[in-house]
Amino acid sequence: MENLAIYPGSFDPITNGHVDIVLRGLRVFDRVLIAVLENPKKAPLFTTKERVAMSRKIFEGRKEVEVVSFSGLLVEFAKARGTNTVIRGLRAISDFEYEFQMALMNRQLAPEMETLFMMPSQEFSFLSSNLVKEVFMLGGSVRDLVPGLVERRLREKSRKHSRFQI
Ligand code: PNS
Predict the structure, then answer these.
(1) Element (H or E) spanning 67, and its range?
(2) Which of 83, 107, 122, 139 is most enclosed, with most CB atoms within 10 A?
(3) 144-165 residue pLDDT tens
């Protein structure tokens, strides 16, 4: 039987750090399902449709990577997709508390749920979607931080919206 892991997140936008985790996930799992959260607490810069489309394009041609959006509880979504495995990237100690809380809450809701943490490459250990947006907005280069497509979409966004918000 194929083993599938869900990689959930806001992906607003997807960064090279996320891509790195997907590729690492594929070393362990047959398939990785990128699950883009529809309603993050903060208003996202990119719509759900845009976030899904960017990730799909980045992994185009890789049948073992699927990208969908989800809303509601992650554990319910995982059950519906027939898996009990979630992968999350862990960059630094500062991520730990938030990730630990989420993993244990998910386990409380569904005891069969397992969360696997994967370390990104060292070069991405400082990277976050929020920092990418901030650096871009302030005129810094994000070339080595996000796939080229994401850089182009950021540029389009900033052209369309004069008040580009983080
Ligand atoms: O990229 P993010 O914003 O850190 O991802 C957070 C995410 C999407 C993994 C988390 O917010 C989530 O799973 N949301 C779904 C709602 C849910 O299940 N909440 C209870 C478990 S903590």
Answers:
(1) strand 65-70
(2) 83
(3) 999 999 999 999 998 877 656 6
Is position 91 annotated as part of the catalytic site?
A: yes
Task: Give the closest residue (by CA) to ligand 1 atom 18.
Answer: 73
* CA distance to 8, 43, 132, 164, per residue, from 46 (Å): 16, 9, 13, 11
- pLDDT 10s digits, 108-149: 999 999 999 999 999 999 999 999 999 999 999 999 999 999
Query: Quick check: helix, strand or coil at residue 37?
Result: strand
- Read off the tokens for 71: 């809303």
The answer to whether residue 42 is catalytic is yes
Angstrom CA distances, 16 to 78, 89, 125, 133, stand at 24, 12, 10, 13
Catalytic residue among 10, 51, 88, 91: 91
**How far apart, in Å, are the Cα atoms of 76 and each of 13, 67, 82?**
24, 17, 10
- Name the more confident of 21 and 158: 21
To the query of whether residue 161 is one of the catalytic residues in this protein, the response is no
